Amino acid sequence: MTSKVKSNIMSSVNSHDDELYVSRRSGSRSIKKIIETKVFEGDFRGAVRLLMSDDSFAPGDADTLASLKLKHPDPSRPLSFPPEPDPSITVLSVTVEDVLSALASFYSGSAAGLDGIRPGHLKELVSVSAGENGRRLVGCLTRLANFLLSGSPIFLSAVPEAITSRTQLLLSAQERLKDLSAHVAIILLRMCFALPKITYLMRTTPTWLCPEEVSSFDNALKLVVQSVLNVSLDGPQWRQAALPIRCGGLGVRCARDVGLPAFLASAHGVANLVTVLLGTNGDGGSMPFVSDAVSAWLSLSSDAAIPESKHVQRAWDDIGVKLLQEHLLGGAVGVDKARLRAVSQPESGAWLQAIPSPHLGTLLDDDSLRVAVALRLGCKVCEPHICTCGSMVEADGHHALSCRRCTGRFPRHHALNDIIRRALVSANIPCVLEPPGLSRSDEFVILKVTKGLVKPFFFTVGVPFILLRSRSPTTDI
Ligand SMILES: [Zn+2]
Fold first, then answer.
1. 63 C-alpha vs ligand 1 centroid, how far in Å?
2. 240: CA distance to ligand 1 center in Å?
3. Which of 284, 348, 397, 430 has fewest C-beta within 10 Å?
């Protein structure tokens, strides 16, 4: 056992000279697999943390040894002081001492807040007699204060820089997202990198007053979406992509569309509380930028109304989304109008909501995702060419969905038949798929029990494709 352990240690030491410890970039293949596995398991936070991490294996050289010694100095020697603060970081922050000083500045007997906790209570809880628990509490209060200070700019002049930092973060994620499969990348982009990174900022600051920076963020978002999906989006297509999934988009929302609804909902949600706080101090009850936001909202369109539930962001957002939908429908004709109406149906975007997982069969390969998105948004799928069946294949790729020689047509049909058959079997309804002797290949036989008698009946399954030229006139109405 001892010799085995020594052997393992020596082999581990010797391997430092080999190229075993590769950089993160050269090991990107395994990293990619790990990230995708985390998404498959629904661990988006872990996937994003790993994706954006710059950590890598340290090389086994003298520099690494020196840096390790710096991090773990000999206890018998004097400990080195921590590095000087970075002067380039201008974020306002507080220390534990600042928090303690602020708490001590309250006079004894100061009135309690809305929660009933008096400053005297806090003073006692963080006093020396409170011991370890007191130190933990003051540490938590310090982190809370720093979170509030760093999360949102206090003055308008700092808002552009805050938006720009979010834009740079989005662009920095672009190259890393390209290493992942497109389905995983678009899910991470939608749920972690795009709007979620700027939502807090939009709810707390007047971002609509910084149109250039907001436009830069939206342009960067469009760039990343095009890069991930490998499709080219023109103006109307990008506007549709920025709609919520329930309204026919991809759910990759633009900051331009969400900024005002987010701020207005947040402002109205906290209005009562702020009025009470400011009224208590005799500072009045007006909140800055709210009236400007309402004016900007009403100036968007003559149909822009004030919702009943002012504190609900979706209530404001739905009005803007409806206006955008009507604008897109008004500018579309024929097949495009039919497509826009079809993708607005509730079930049409269910596949975009599914967590990609190869184990559940919900992970789309890059090409399938590209075609599915292109059909949803009306993008160019391919170069026009002649199909093997002799028909002309347009750039929209619609011919492949109705071509009699299309290889995917029958598997899709069989898959649909099988889903319905399994649903019936799950409901304890006897069902026979494609019984021999019937002329149609897509017929079922269901043995229906009525008053103790077993009666078979048949039905067929067919899926009308709304983008077919022959069906467009009906769906276009
Ligand atoms: Zn064909």
1. 63
2. 29
3. 284
The amino acid that residue 135 corresponds to is: R
Give yes or no for a contact between 443 and 460, defined as CB atoms under 8 angstroms apart.
yes
- The b/e string for 31-49 (b: 16+ C-beta within 10 A; e otherwise) is bbeebbebbbeeebeebbe
How many angstroms is it from 402 CA to the middle of ligand 1?
7
> Global pTM?
0.65
State in Å: Cα 441 to ligand 1 middle. 22
List, in order, residues 6 or more apart from 223 with CB less than 8 Å away.
171, 174
Q: Tell me how many domains the chain contains.
A: 3
**460 Cα to the center of ligand 1, angstroms:** 25
Query: 365 — phi, psi (to 5°)?
Result: -75, 165
- Report the separation in Å between the CA atom of 312 and the middle of ligand 1, taken as the mean of its atom positions: 49
Distance of CA 414 from the midpoint of ligand 1 (Å):
20
Based on the domain organization, do 365 and 230 belong to the same domain?
no
On whether both 278 and 372 belong to a single domain, the answer is no
Determine the distance separating the centroid of ligand 1 and the alpha carbon of 37, expressed in angstroms: 38
Hey, what are 272's tokens?
A: 């009562």
- Same domain for 364 and 273, yes or no, is no
Q: How far is the CA of 263 from the centre of ligand 1 (A)?
A: 51
101: containing domain: 93-109+119-151
The mean pLDDT values, 10 residues at a time, for the chain of 477 residues are 64 49 52 86 86 81 87 69 59 80 82 74 85 88 76 75 88 86 89 85 88 92 90 88 88 89 89 74 68 86 79 88 88 83 85 86 88 88 86 82 76 81 83 68 51 62 59 38
On whether residue 140 sits in a domain, the answer given is yes
Q: For 52, which DSSP code? A: T
**What's the gap in Å between 411 CA and the centre of ligand 1?**
16
